[in-house]
């Protein structure tokens, strides 16, 4: 059962693109097929043909800048099919049947399979910057499917942005652990810090408990400690740029006296709503003006070269102890 149909008509009225959904799931081993339909009114087509294109592209710069030539866009992966005159007949799916009934007469089905090498792409944009990886379905009129010298008028195209999403693994693993031992001048013994998490996967908005143990064998006082969550975005497509931004910071005014111990479970929740004014954050891709969240961690499939991933996102939790006279 499809509750909604997404539709876009070209400026000349001759092409109407139909999709049954705009979110396509990356199952790591495969990606949902992109099944759609185009309704044609060929009265003004002349000797031109109708093509449908699915493209994955890296973009830097807004559409406004594209007008003056300052938008950088690189097609990473692209597929074309010709649907008029008809030479592409996909096996019809339940999605096709629904869309063909909706579109009515003179409607042509198409189907794309996303390349396995591209299945690990996630969609991001940076707050206050138009930068990211996106998928676009476009139908257009042209004499040839991909002739760079042929100018395709905007009125002869209809396009819809789609989004590929990854579901979290069904099996949750053991959480990470870390420990450190720090010595200080004028103190014979060190401070021990140990931190552990219950599991290795958390959903957006889910509280993250962190178990902290401090064993202060030194002669200095731990005045307080700070917990920070850093988001690191690695743009690997066109450069080696890395951006690290704190998406959560909180200080805890707990003291640990010399030769004292401390043990507690702290709960943190990094949220986009607390980072609305920060620049350069990677966010999960969104369609139009719908709500989104901090970008999900990129899940890598074994054997895939990082260079073809476009953008990688990861998170790190840091715990800093503030020690009187020790830093």
UniProtKB/TrEMBL annotation:
GO terms for molecular function: G protein-coupled receptor binding. The keyword Acetylation does not apply. It comes from the Eukaryota. Keywords: Sensory transduction, Vision. Residues 187-326 form the Arrestin C-terminal-like domain. One of its GO terms (biological process) is G protein-coupled receptor internalization. Gene3D superfamilies: 2.60.40.640, 2.60.40.840. May play a role in an as yet undefined retina-specific signal transduction. Could bind to photoactivated-phosphorylated red/green opsins. Belongs to the arrestin family. This is Arrestin-C. It comes from Seriola dumerili.
